[in-house]
Amino acid sequence: MTNDHPQSPPGTRAEPPNLTGSPFDSDTFTSATFVTVGRGPYLAVASVWLLTRVGMVLLLMRDTLGIGGVGREVELYRHWYGQFAQGTFPPGDATWQYPPGAGLVIMSPGLVPWLGYVQAFVALTLLADAVVTVALARADSARLTHGTWIWVCGLPLLLHLPLARYDVQTTALAVLALLAVTARSTAAHQLGGALAGIGAMVKVWPALALIGTPRGRTTREAWTAAAVAALALLATLALFFSDSLGFLRQQGSRGIQIESLGGTALALAKATGAWPGGVEFRYGAIEYVGPYVSSLGHLALLLTVIAFGWLLLWRVRARRWTAATPLDAALTAVLLFTVTSRVISPQYMIWLLGLAAVCLTSRRTVMRPVALLLLPAAALSSLAYPVLYDQVVAGTAQGLTVMVLRNGLLLAAALLAARRLWTTTVTTAATATATAPPES
C-alpha cells in the first residue's frame, strides 16, 4: 500500500524547524493560538459573527461608503439570472468572465422565492459564511484555533463587499474541500476532490486546493473525483444552456486592472511622468490603457506560468508531508496566482482569508506569519475600494500609498509563503536525510 503520509527519517524532529526566528513560531505563540473549547469560545465566535455580519448588512443597505454602489454587482447578477431563465449564458456580454459553474450560484436565489433576488442572494451568502465558520470551528474537535477567528474577524475588514459578490460561496467550496482531503477516509478524499472540481467550474482557483495532496492514494482519489465532478457539471450545463464557454472570449481580452501589481507599477510611472497612459472602463473594471500595457499583460501571464512551474517543481521535489502541507500549499498557490494576475479585485482577499483560516486550524502549519500579513492587506483593500477608490483611479498620493502598501503586503505574503513551504517540505527533508545516522 502506498504511504500517503511518509514518516520523517530516523533521528529527525517531527515538528518543522524555526525558520525565521519570528516570535510567531515560538512555543508561547503556538500555545496561545489554541484556546481550549468549552461553551465560552463557541459563544464568543457566534456573538462576534452575528454582530459583525449585522454591521456588514447595514453597510450594504446604505451602500454609500466611499464611491458607493458596491451592491450594483448583485443587480448585474439579477440581470444574468433573467438570461439563465431563457436557457442561455450571457451572450456577447463583456462583463461575463466566469466559468459556467458560476451560473449555479447566480441562479441559486431562485431557491428562496419568498425573498427578492438581492435579499435572497445576501441571505445565501451569509449562509455560506456561517457554514465556513462552523466547519473551521469543528476542524479541531478539541481546541478552537485562530483559524476561525481569522475568518470571523477578517471578513468584515472588507466591509460589506463580501455580501455583494459570490466569492464567499466559492471560498466555502475550497475550505470544505481542503478539510475533506486532509481526513483519512477514501470517501472524504473523494468528497473533497468533488468539491474542488465543482469550485473550479465556479471560479477556477479552487482547483489549486488539491495542489498539495499527498502523493499516492489520496491524490488519485481526490484528483479523479475533481475531474469527474468538473466534467459532469460542465456537460450538464452545456446540455441545458447555450454558450456555456463564452466566458473564454472575454477573459482573453482583459488588460491591466488598476488594483493589480502591474497597475501599481504603471500608476507610479504615471505619477513620475515616465508613462503617458490613462485609465478606461473596460470589461467591467477600470483598466490602464496606453503604451507598454499589452507588454506588461504578457509579462503577467509569463509570471503566472512561472509560478505554476514552480508549484510543479515543488510537488516533484517535496519529500516531507505533514497534516498541514495540503493546506499550506493551497494558500501558497493562490497567493502566487493572485500577485501575478492582471486583475487583483478586492474580493480576491476573501479567498486568501478563507485559505489562511484553514491553515490555522492545524498546529503543524507554517503559514501563521503569512496569515497575519493578510489582515492588514484586507483592511487596505477596503480602503482602496470602495472608500478611496476615486483617489486610486486618479492616482493621487493617497491612492498610490494605499495600493503600494496593499500590494506590497500581498507580494511579501506570497514570497514568504513560497519560502516557508519549500523550506519545510524540500530543504528540511533533504537535510534530514543527509544527516540521518546509517542503519545498523
TrEMBL record:
It is a multi-pass membrane protein. Its main location: membrane. Residues 1-22 are annotated as: Disordered. One of its GO terms (cellular component) is plasma membrane. The chain crosses the membrane at residues 114-137, 149-168, 188-211, 223-241, 296-314, 370-388, 400-418. Keywords: Cell membrane, Membrane, Transferase, Transmembrane, Transmembrane helix. GO terms for molecular function: hexosyltransferase activity. InterPro entries: GT87. The keyword Lipid biosynthesis does not apply. Belongs to the glycosyltransferase 87 family. This is DUF2029 domain-containing protein. It comes from Streptomyces venezuelae (strain ATCC 10712 / CBS 650.69 / DSM 40230 / JCM 4526 / NBRC 13096 / PD 04745).
